[in-house]
C-alpha cells in the first residue's frame, strides 16, 4: 500500500499534474458555483479538454473538477441560498441564515474547513480500503459482475427521492435502451440505427451527459429565471473561527465524515443523501439548546452536511475504482471518461494501471489542500461570478456545451441529436423524473450485456450460473430485496398503522 | 362521471408511463427487426437478447407506473414558467447546427450568441456584439493554439473562390 501511495505521490507531484489539479479545482469551483450547474455538468464540460492528455493527467484534472464543483456549490448555497448541486442543499439550511446575520465569511470558512477535513478523512479511508476491496473483487466472475451491476442500478432507483422509485427505474431502463443503439460488436450487426450512418457508433456518452445535464440545465435556467437572479451577500466579514467554534465543530466533522464516506460507497446514495443524513444525525444528537439553532444559523448544521458531502464524493470512488461500477451520476461520467481514454475500469485497474488508481486517490488529497489554500482567500472575488447577468451566462453555457460535443466528432448531426435529448431531458426534469439513473443505465448497459453474454457462454447456454456461486446468489438476493423494498416498506407501514389502531 | 374519473386517473406520471409503454413496445418491435446471421439465430444469447430483456423490463415498469397510484402534479406551476424564450432558443440551436458548416465557426457562433443574448432580454447592442465576438474569437484562437482546426465554412470558400 505504501508503495502505491508513493507511486501516486510521484505521479501527482509533478509540475504538470499539480497545475492540472489546480486548474481542475479552479474551473470546478467556478462552474459549481453557478446555480444549477453541478459536478456532472462541470466534468462533462471539461472532458473534451482532457482528450489530448495522458489518461492519468485527464483523470487528475477531472477529479479536481469534481471536488471544486462541490466546493463551489456550497458557496452559492451560502451566499445566495441557491445550491449549485443537490449535495449542497443541506448546506443552505444554516449557511444562508449565517450569511444573512452578516457572518458570510465565517460560514464560508466553516464550509471550507469542513470540506477539507471531510475530504481528507475520506481520502485516508479510501487509501486503506480501496486496495483491499480491489484485491477481493479480483475473484469476481462475469456472472458476479452482471449481478453486481444489476444491484447497482437497482440501488440507484431505491435511493431516489420518496415516491420516485418507479420513475428512477424507468429512467434506468431508458438509459439501457439508449446504450443498445449502434453496432453490436460481438455480432457485428446494427441495432436501432434505422439506416443512419451517424448512429453506427451509437450515442456518445459525452453527448448524452452534456445534453441531459449541461444543455438541459441551461434551458431550465431560461424557464425558471426568478430563482437564478439573486444578488449574493457580500463576504466582507472575517474568515476567522474562535477556539470555541473549532472545538464545537471538530467532533461534528469527524462523525459526519465517517457517515458520509460510508454512505458514499453505496451505489446510488451519494453526496445528497449523505449530507441530509449527517444534518439529521447532528440535529438529533444535539442538546436542546443547540438543536433550536438548527435552521437559524447553527455552525454544527453547516459543518455536518459540508464534511459529509465531501467525504461521500471521495467514498463514491470506492465502487468506481475497485469494481468499475459507478455509484453516482458523477462517477458514471468519470467512468465514461476512463472508457473513452481506452482504460478498462474494474479491479484490474488496480493491477494493470496502478499509476492511475493511486494518482486519482492521491490527487483527491492534494485537491483538497489546494481548495483550502486557494479558494478561501479568493472566495470574495470568485463570488462575483454569481452576478454575471443570466442573459449572458445562459447562452455561454449553451455554446460551450454544444462545442464540447461538436469538437469531439465534428459532426453537426450530434448538435441536433443533443438538442433533441436535451429537450426530452428538460421535460422529464419538469415532470420530476431523475436523470442520473438514465446516465448510469446508459454507461453500464454495454458492460452489463458483455458480462451476461460471457456468463451464458461459459455456462453453455444454461442459466445455472446464477446459483452456482455463493457470491452470485448473495447478489441476487440483495437485488431482490432492493427491488421489492417499496413493497416491504408498504407492508411494514400498514402493519404499523394496524398495530397502532 | 366516467369522464371526470378519467381526468383524475390520467395525470402526468401516468401519461409519461403510457408514452414509455409505447416507446418500450416500439423498442421490442424493432429489437425483433435486428438482423441475425444463420448461426446467431439458434444461439441462446444473440444481438436481440439484451434488447428483449431491457424492453420487457421497461414495459413492466411502464405498466406499474400507469397502474400504481401516484402523486398529482401541479400543472399550474408548469404554466407559470417562462416558456416564451424557449420557443425561439430551441430552433436557434437547431439552426446553428445546420449553419455551422455553411457560415463557418466564427460567424455562426457569433450570431448564435448575439441572437441568444437578445432573446433573453439584453438590449445593449454594442456590449452584446463585443462579448459574442470576443468570446468566440478567444475560443477560436485557443483551439487554434491547441492544433484544433475549425473550417471557415462553405460561405467563406465560395466568396474566396469568387
Summarize the structure in words.
The complex is a heterodimer of chains A (501) and B (162). The termini of chain A are far apart. In chain A, helix 3 (39-50) crosses helix 8 and helix 3 crosses helix 18 (390-409). Chain A has 501 residues and is an all-alpha fold. Helix content of chain A is 76%, strand content 1%. The mean pLDDT of chain A is 83. The longest helix of chain A has 49 residues, at 89-137. Chain A has a two-stranded antiparallel sheet with strand order 1-2. Chain A has one domain. Chain B is an all-alpha fold. Chain B folds into 2 domains: 2-78, no CATH class; 84-161, no CATH class. Chain B has helices at 2-9, 12-31, 49-67, 75-79, 84-103, 105-119, 125-145, 154-161. At the A-B interface, helix 7, strand 2, helix 8, helix 18 and helix 19 of A face helix 2, helix 3, helix 5, helix 6 and helix 7 of B.
Write the layout of secondary structure elements.
The complex is a heterodimer of chains A (501) and B (162).
Chain A: H1 2-12, H2 15-33, H3 39-50, H4 55-80, H5 89-137, H6 142-158, H7 165-179, E1 182-184, E2 189-191, H8 205-223, H9 225-228, H10 243-265, H11 270-285, H12 288-291, H13 299-315, H14 317-323, H15 329-340, H16 347-352, H17 354-382, H18 390-409, H19 413-430, H20 436-458, H21 465-468, H22 470-483, H23 485-500
Antiparallel strand pairs in A: 1-2
Chain B: H1 2-9, H2 12-31, H3 49-67, H4 75-79, H5 84-103, H6 105-119, H7 125-145, H8 154-161
Amino acid at each position: 500500500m505504501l508503495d502505491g501511495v508513493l507511486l501516486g505521490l510521484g505521479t501527482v507531484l509533478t509540475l504538470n499534474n499539480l497545475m492540472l489539479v489546480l486548474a481542475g479545482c479552479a474551473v470546478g469551483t467556478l462552474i459549481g458555483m453557478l446555480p444549477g450547474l453541478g459536478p456532472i455538468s462541470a466534468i462533462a464540460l471539461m472532458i473534451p479538454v482532457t482528450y489530448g492528455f495522458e489518461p492519468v493527467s485527464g483523470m487528475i484534472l477531472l477529479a479536481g473538477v469534481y471536488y471544486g464543483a462541490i466546493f463551489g456549490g456550497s458557496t452559492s448555497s451560502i451566499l445566495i441560498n441557491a445550491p449549485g448541486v443537490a449535495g449542497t442543499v443541506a448546506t443552505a439550511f444554516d449557511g444562508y441564515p449565517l450569511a444573512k446575520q452578516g457572518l458570510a465569511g465565517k460560514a464560508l470558512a466553516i464550509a471550507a474547513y469542513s470540506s477539507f477535513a471531510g475530504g481528507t478523512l475520506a481520502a485516508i479511508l479510501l487509501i486503506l480500503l480501496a486496495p483491499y476491496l480491489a484485491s477481493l473483487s479480483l475473484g469476481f466472475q462475469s456472472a458476479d459482475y452482471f449481478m453486481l451491476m444489476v444491484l447497482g442500478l437497482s440501488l440507484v432507483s431505491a435511493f431516489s427521492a420518496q415516491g420516485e422509485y418507479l420513475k428512477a427505474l424507468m429512467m434506468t431502463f431508458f438509459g439501457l435502451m439508449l446504450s443498445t443503439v449502434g453496432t453490436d460488436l460481438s455480432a457485428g450487426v446494427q441495432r436501432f440505427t434505422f439506416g443512419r450512418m451517424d448512429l453506427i457508433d451509437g450515442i456518445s456518452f459525452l453527448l448524452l451527459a452534456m445534453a441531459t445535464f449541461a444543455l438541459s440545465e441551461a434551458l431550465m435556467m431560461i424557464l425558471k429565471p426568478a430563482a437564478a437572479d439573486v444578488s449574493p451577500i457580500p463576504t466582507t466579514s472575517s474568515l476567522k473561527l474562535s477556539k470555541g467554534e473549532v472545538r464545537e465543530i471538530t467532533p461534528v466533522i469527524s462523525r459526519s465524515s465517517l457517515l458520509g464516506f460510508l454512505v458514499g460507497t453505496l451505489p446510488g446514495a451519494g453526496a445528497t443523501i449523505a449530507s441530509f443524513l449527517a444534518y439529521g444525525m447532528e440535529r438529533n444528537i444535539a442538546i436542546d439548546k443547540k438543536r433550536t439553532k438548527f435552521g437559524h444559523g447553527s455552525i454544527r448544521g453547516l459543518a455536518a452536511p459540508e464534511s459529509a458531502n465531501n467525504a461521500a464524493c471521495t467514498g463514491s470512488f470506492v465502487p468506481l475504482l475497485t469494481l468499475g461500477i459507478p455509484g453516482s451520476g458523477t462517477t458514471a461520467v468519470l467512468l465514461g471518461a476512463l472508457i473513452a481514454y481506452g482504460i478498462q475500469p474494474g479491479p484490474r485497474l488496480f493491477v494493470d494501471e496502478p499509476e492511475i488508481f493511486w494518482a486519482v486517490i492521491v490527487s483527491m488529497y492534494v485537491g483538497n489542500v489546494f481548495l483550502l489554500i486557494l479558494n478561501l482567500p479568493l472566495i470574495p472575488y470568485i463570488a462575483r461570478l454569481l452576478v454575471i447577468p443570466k442573459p449572458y451566462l445562459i447562452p455561454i453555457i449553451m455554446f460551450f456545451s454544444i462545442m464540447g460535443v461538436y469538437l469531439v466528432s465534428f459532426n453537426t448531426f450530434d448538435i441536433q441529436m443533443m438538442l433533441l435529448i436535451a429537450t426530452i431531458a428538460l421535460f422529464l426534469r419538469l415532470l420530476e423524473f431523475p436523470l442520473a439513473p438514465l446516465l448510469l443505465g446508459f454507461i453500464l448497459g454495454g458492460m452489463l450485456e458483455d458480462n451476461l453474454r460471457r456468463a451464458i457462454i461459459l455456462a453453455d447456454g444454461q442459466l445455472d450460473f446464477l446459483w452456482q456461486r455463493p457470491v452470485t446468489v448473495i447478489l441476487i438476493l440483495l437485488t431482490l430485496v432492493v427491488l421489492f423494498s417499496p413493497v416491504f416498506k408498504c407492508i411494514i407501514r400498514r402493519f404499523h398503522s394496524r398495530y397502532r389502531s | 362521471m366516467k369522464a371526470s374519473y378519467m381526468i383524475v386517473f390520467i395525470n402526468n406520471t401516468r401519461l409519461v408511463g403510457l408514452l414509455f409503454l409505447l416507446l418500450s413496445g416500439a423498442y421490442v418491435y424493432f429489437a425483433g427487426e435486428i438482423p441475425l446471421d444463420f448461426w446467431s439465430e439458434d444461439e441462446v444469447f444473440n444481438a436481440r437478447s439484451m434488447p428483449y430483456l431491457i424492453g420487457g423490463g421497461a414495459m413492466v415498469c411502464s405498466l406499474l407506473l400507469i397502474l400504481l397510484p401516484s402523486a398529482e402534479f401541479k400543472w399550474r406551476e408548469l404554466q407559470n414558467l417562462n416558456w416564451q424564450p424557449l420557443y425561439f432558443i430551441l430552433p436557434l440551436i437547431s439552426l446553428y447546427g445546420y449553419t455551422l458548416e455553411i457560415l463557418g465557426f466564427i460567424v455562426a457562433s457569433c450570431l448564435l450568441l448575439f441572437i441568444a443574448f437578445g432573446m433573453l432580454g439584453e438590449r445593449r447592442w454594442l456590449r452584446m456584439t463585443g462579448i459574442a465576438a470576443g468570446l468566440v474569437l478567444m475560443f477560436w484562437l485557443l483551439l487554434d493554439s491547441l492544433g484544433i482546426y475549425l473550417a471557415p465554412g462553405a460561405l467563406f470558400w465560395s466568396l474566396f473562390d469568387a
